[in-house]
Structures are given as structure tokens and as C-alpha cells.
Design brief:
The structure is a homotetramer. By secondary structure, chain A is α+β, with helices and mostly antiparallel strands. Chain A is about 25% helix and about 40% strand. In chain A, β3 and β4 form a beta hairpin.
Chain lengths: ~130, ~130, ~130, ~130
């Protein structure tokens, strides 16, 4: 499991003093960038001519989160298919240990030249924690 | 069905020249604010002490959308339950008539004083296109 | 003078119920995209291989603006130099006719191939309301 | 001088692959929240019934910053007046040690009850690095 902490700032909040719905998607994306860096690094992706593309997101907003709270984003692979995969991302309030939001992020990896999804095998499958084909 | 048009601007785009994932959630929210205004108006909600609260969103990113494109957000009630409801929102590229993204937005209406969901009946049910209880 | 209206939505607001500081820069940018479209159109800029680049912004936050307010962004050229220019942008609350914020936006036009500023003469000078050289 | 590091992520970028203009204002604000926390903490401000209010910002965009770069925001008090002050904030690319952007942020401190600026003396003046009155 990959973890990444983001502290809630004033500009993250809506008029109720809670983190705004759209902002959570940025938090999840920030954690995914860190995950990619922590593994092979962004250069590897660039050299391979590959890009990570989000196909769909299901996000549940479970509890509000306010100013100054540290949110830990916990990411783990939920399902690793042949050409698409689902990353599970939970946002946990570190002060209360409660889940604030959770999301299933379905993604594909595309070849930047063709724009088409590639098979998730070999080094790519390994990068996502699966066995190499 | 409620419709609302947003033109894609430079600051909506990511480095691939496509509308950013998180930004679509702002587009959907903008359309929902317009929908609430077009119906009873925001004052009605305020006077009733009620607030619209998103519980979960499932969004599918189907095609990229680039600079200058007019996106029409088409919103219609998909399911109207006793205490929660699902609004269907499609984002259509008006130049090509293709669906760029679609989303199911599950929401509740909360009483601002208690913070708890209220029953979707009476004027509230009518506001969402259902028959008054 | 070019005018453009933006209605304040919930996701524009901070926890005090006022439009967030950073968001005003998006409002100003949205008005500038509309201004460029209303003049020669974005295709013209693309065909010429030119891009609009902001060098500096001075923005004064004069009054708060809340939910549902219509803000009119009024843009006019303040100074048109040889290689840089200053666009004046005022944000006016249409309900009260008060200035909510005003900004001086200094920009250059760069050649996309070289990345360097070009002289603001000929068709470009005309586009910004000056006499063609 | 207060320092704070932000790594540039994909969703910070515009279609040229550079950090978006409006996003810099969020970076500056994030550093200011950290500065307030590092000093008396947010609770102190809340207990005193005081709030930090930005009156104007002058920002110069000097160089582009791209994906994966670590930006250090360096904040120091530039001018400490009787009722307003100017914080200088520089954004430095840590890989090249070049200034990417710099800003002068003029602010006041308001009493949350009255909404009016208070004198920057006593503990408040000390908090901003000045001598207590």
C-alpha cells in the first residue's frame, strides 16, 4: 500500500468549511503522481512513451474534513486486468482515523504515439504489483 | 432535462490539451447550481434551511475535450428514492454531438441545523420532478 | 471595452462565503479568452504561431463577492508598448455596481517557435486597439 | 525567512506543460498557511478572533516551471506598517536555483466580529517579526 499525506488548507474549503468535492480528485491525483514517482519514476514512463489515463472514478464522500486536518491517501491495487486496472484510494483523517472519502479509480495505460491502451503485462504489470507475464 | 453550456478555456486544460479530470466535477457542479436556480431559486433553499449534499459520484471519462469547445451538460433525475436520489449528468461536445463524460451523482438533502438528511417528499420531491407525496 | 459576465457559484467560495483569491485570476483569464475570441479568434493566433503570455499581474481585492452574484469583467487596454502591454481588468458586482477587484495584467506576445516576445506592431497592434504601424 | 516546498504535479500544469498562473496563487497561499501554523498556530488566530486578509498581490511570472520540479516558496516580511504589511514571497526552482515567480502580498489583519482591520501591534506585530509596540 502506498500512502501520502496532504494537510487541508483554507483554499481547499467550501463555504461550509469542508474540503470541496472536486478538490478530492486533485488529492487523489497528487497521491497517484507520488506513487508513480516512488515506483519507476516519471522518466521511465516518458522513455517508454506510455501515459496513465483515468477511465472512470467512483468516489464516496463519507465525512467532512476541515481546516488543518492531515489526510492520508492510502492507495492499493484492487483489480489488475489485461488492459485496465482499478486502484483503490482511501482518504483517512489522521486525527480520528476515520475514512473521509474512498474511491475506485479505473485506469488504462496508453501508448502516447497511438493514443491506444496497451496490455498490462511485463514491466508494466510488475509496476502495478502483479506478476510479470 | 436541464441543459447548461460551458466553453472550454485554456486554464481548464492539462498538459495534453484536454480538460482536466477534476475540472469536470466543477462543470457538473456549475450545471447543478444553475438547475437549482432555474427551479425554486437559491433563496428557497436558504429559507427552508436545506442544503444539497453530494454523497457519491461515478464519472466516466469517454473522450477528450479541447480548447474552445462548447460542452453541454444535460442533467436529468435518474432515480428518486425516499431519502436519496441520483442525478444523471452527461457532458456532450456540441461540435460533434459526442458524449465526452457522463456521471451519476447521488445526493441527499440535509437540514442545515441538524446536518441530517431529510425525506424527499412534498415540495422537495416536486422540485426534483417527482410527484408530491 | 470588452465585457464578460460570470455568476459566482458555490465552488468559487472560500469558508467565509467569498470568492477565493486565486479564483479571481481564473475569472480574469476567462474574460481574456473571450476577448481574444471576440476579436480575431483563437485560430488566427494559432495560424500566426503566436501566444499570449502574462508577465505580471497586480490585483487589488476591494470588496467580497458572494454566492449567486453576477460579476462583470470589464477589460480595456491601458498601455500599449513596443513589446509589452498592460490590460486593465475590473470586476464589478452588477447588483451593486461596486468594483470588487481590479487588476493590471502586463503581457507579451511570444512566437511559439522561438519562445521569444515579438514586436506589437501591424495586425497585432490593431488587435489590441492600437494604430497599425 | 520561512520556506516551504511544493512539488509540481500534472494537474498544476497548463497545455504548455507549465504551472498555470492562477495555481501560483494557491502555492503562495499554501506557504502562508504553513507560516501561520509554524508561528502561533491557527488556534491562536481563532481564539483572538482575528483573520488574515489579502488586500492586493503583485506577482511577476519570471520563468516557467514544469512537471516534477520542486519549488521552494521563500517568504519574508518586506514592510510592516501600522495597519497593513507586505509579505515578499519568492518561488525558486530548487533544481536550477532560479526564481520562477515573485510576489508582494499586501495584507491586513481583521477582527472577525467587526470585519475591520486592527492595528498591527503587540503580539500581532511580534508574530510578523516586528518589535512589540
Amino acid at each position: 500500500m502506498h500512502t501520502y499525506i496532504i494537510r487541508v488548507r483554507g483554499f481547499h474549503l467550501d463555504l461550509y468549511g469542508h474540503v470541496n468535492n472536486a478538490r478530492y480528485l486533485e488529492f487523489l491525483e497528487e497521491a497517484r503522481w507520488d506513487l508513480l514517482e516512488a515506483d519507476r519514476g516519471l522518466d521511465w514512463w516518458h522513455e517508454q512513451g506510455l501515459a496513465f489515463l483515468v477511465a472512470s472514478i467512483t468516489i464516496n464522500y463519507r465525512r467532512p474534513a476541515g481546516l488543518g486536518v492531515d489526510l492520508e491517501i492510502r492507495s492499493s491495487m484492487r483489480r489488475l486486468g489485461g488492459r485496465s486496472a482499478v486502484l483503490r484510494q482511501e482518504v483517512v483523517n489522521l486525527a480520528t482515523d476515520e475514512v473521509v472519502a474512498d474511491a475506485d479509480v479505473t485506469f488504462v495505460v496508453i501508448c502516447q504515439e497511438t493514443g491506444r491502451p496497451v496490455a498490462l503485462d511485463g514491466a508494466l504489470r510488475e509496476a502495478f504489483g502483479g506478476d510479470p507475464a
